[in-house]
Amino acid sequence: MFYAVCSLLALGLLALDQWSKAWITANLPLGETMDFLPGVLGLRAVHNYGAAWSSFSGQRWLLVAVTGCIVLAVAVALARRLIRHPLGVAAGMLIIAGGLGNLIDRVRLGYVVDMLYFPFWPSYPTFNAADVCVVSGAVLGAVYYLWFYEKHDKRGGTDGTADPADNA
């Protein structure tokens, strides 16, 4: 049941990411800005041809391949139930949703549409909902690995109890 709920949430986040990118593209000219939460969060239409901080700029197919491999590896780990703890499952679903959101852009457009920025931190890069999913998933994944993996999901190290995802 928990896998189904996380899958639906991941699909919803993917849809939100794609909708927000379409909205920005249709309503804000490239490079223009708009207040969202004045002084805290703004909107800026940007085409990112690289990864975080425009690293690997122009390496579209390398980024497609790397993102595709990561999304596939996480999906296989979830499908084979190598990750069973609810926190690990949620982390994986967030990484898949965000990875697919940016992968769709790279394949379809050749770049990623970014739109969120911090006016109070001008050197921080512009980002999107998919980036928020990936970063949140990575943080949750690190917490899961550091505090829950050994006890719940490590093969040969479990105490024989039921799958924690079944009780969530």
From TrEMBL:
Q: How does it sit in the membrane?
A: Multi-pass membrane protein
Q: So where does this one cross the membrane?
A: 61-79, 86-104, 124-147
Domain of life, per the record? Answer: Bacteria
Entry keyword set: Aspartyl protease, Cell membrane, Hydrolase, Lipoprotein, Membrane, Protease, Signal, Transmembrane, Transmembrane helix
- Enzyme class name: hydrolase
Kindly list the GO molecular function terms attached to this UniProt entry.
Answer: aspartic-type endopeptidase activity
Tell me the InterPro entries matching this sequence.
Peptidase_A8
Q: Which residues form the active site?
A: 114, 131
Catalytic activity entry: Release of signal peptides from bacterial membrane prolipoproteins. Hydrolyzes -Xaa-Yaa-Zaa-|-(S,diacylglyceryl)Cys-, in which Xaa is hydrophobic (preferably Leu), and Yaa (Ala or Ser) and Zaa (Gly or Ala) have small, neutral side chains
GO BP: any one term: proteolysis
Location within or outside the cell = Cell membrane
List the GO cellular component terms. Answer: plasma membrane
Signal sequence region: 1-22
Q: In which pathway does it act?
A: Protein modification; lipoprotein biosynthesis (signal peptide cleavage)
Give its E.C. classification number. Answer: 3.4.23.36
Function recorded in the entry:
This protein specifically catalyzes the removal of signal peptides from prolipoproteins.
The Swiss-Prot or TrEMBL record describes its family as follows:
Belongs to the peptidase A8 family.
Check the record and name the NCBIfam families matching this protein: lspA (TIGR00077)
Name listed for the protein in its UniProt record: Lipoprotein signal peptidase
Provenance organism: Pusillibacter faecalis
